[in-house]
């Protein structure tokens, strides 16, 4: 993970007098939400949504790439004005930062090696029972880590920096299962799994495990009501006119916009 924190000495750039530029933090290792292309540019669903958001707010934006588990701490100390990185809105995070209205609601999935008995699970509870004491991989600082710690207390939790590392360890037999968003799994299952990796049980949401929260939102430093209001206004207009749905179709081939 590359750390790009240019112009941080400027601190938060939105004031009551108006904004010249917003600094947006993201962890560009989670395609199709965000990743880095061959030219070093951050691309993905969040990038397109964020760029359109800034356009509607009539401000310029600078994107900064940061390891996922450093995003919210960075926001809290003023390194970023906003964080957009598929961040799920939940109670634990809401104690530390403020959130915009949800702009997306992406399902999650557990993946196992083909032939594992958890693959035929019919419910979230059955997944818990079959994987209760297994080694399970998650990305550091995510709601997926929170879910495993809360609901799979006997599991051997393995924490990774990147999604591809979870897939690699699954294929190598070092873990029995991994939990990530469905969208993060799709290219890994297709390109690396080669029929060896399969989805286990149903897709999972906040209904199954409350730690998944109420959808994905933009995180803001606590107390910036003016910025929060402007962000919400832009999100509402983008949901209403179908812009986020169209961007979702571009990157996911299905609609994850918040309904």
From TrEMBL:
Keyword Signal recorded:
yes
Supply the InterPro entries for this chain.
Solute-binding_3/MltF_N
Q: Which residues form the signal peptide?
A: 1-19
Alphabetical UniProt keywords? Signal
Q: Does the keyword ATP-binding apply?
A: no
Identify the domain of life: Bacteria
The name of this protein is Amino acid ABC transporter substrate-binding protein (PAAT family) /L-arginine-binding protein
Species annotation: Pseudochrobactrum asaccharolyticum
Q: Lineage of the source organism?
A: Bacteria, Pseudomonadati, Pseudomonadota, Alphaproteobacteria, Hyphomicrobiales
């Amino acid at each position: 993970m590359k750390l790009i924190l240019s112009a941080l000495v400027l601190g938060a750039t939105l004031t009551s007098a108006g904004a010249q530029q917003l600094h947006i933090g993201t962890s560009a290792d989670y395609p199709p939400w965000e990743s880095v292309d061959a030219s070093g540019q951050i691309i993905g669903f969040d990038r397109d949504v964020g760029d359109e958001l800034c356009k509607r707010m009539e401000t310029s934006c600078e994107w900064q790439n940061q390891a996922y588990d450093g995003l919210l701490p960075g926001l809290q100390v003023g390194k970023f004005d906003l964080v957009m990185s598929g961040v799920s809105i939940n109670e634990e995070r809401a104690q530390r930062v403020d959130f915009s209205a949800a702009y997306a609601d992406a399902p999650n999935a557990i993946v196992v090696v083909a032939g594992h008995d958890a693959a035929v699970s019919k419910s979230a509870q059955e997944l818990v029972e079959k994987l209760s004491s297994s080694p399970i991989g998650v990305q550091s600082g995510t709601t997926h880590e929170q879910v495993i710690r809360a609901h799979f207390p006997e599991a051997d939790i393995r924490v990774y920096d990147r999604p591809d590392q979870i897939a690699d360890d699954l294929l190598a037999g070092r873990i029995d299962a991994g939990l990530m968003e469905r969208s993060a799994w799709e290219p890994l299952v297709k390109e690396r799994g080669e029929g060896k990796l399969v989805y286990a049980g149903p897709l999972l949401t906040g209904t199954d495990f409350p730690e998944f929260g109420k959808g994905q939102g933009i995180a803001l430093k606590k107390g910036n009501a003016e910025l929060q209001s402007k962000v919400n206004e832009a999100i509402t207009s983008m949901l209403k006119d179908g812009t986020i749905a169209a961007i979702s179709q571009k990157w996911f081939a299905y609609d994850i916009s918040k309904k």
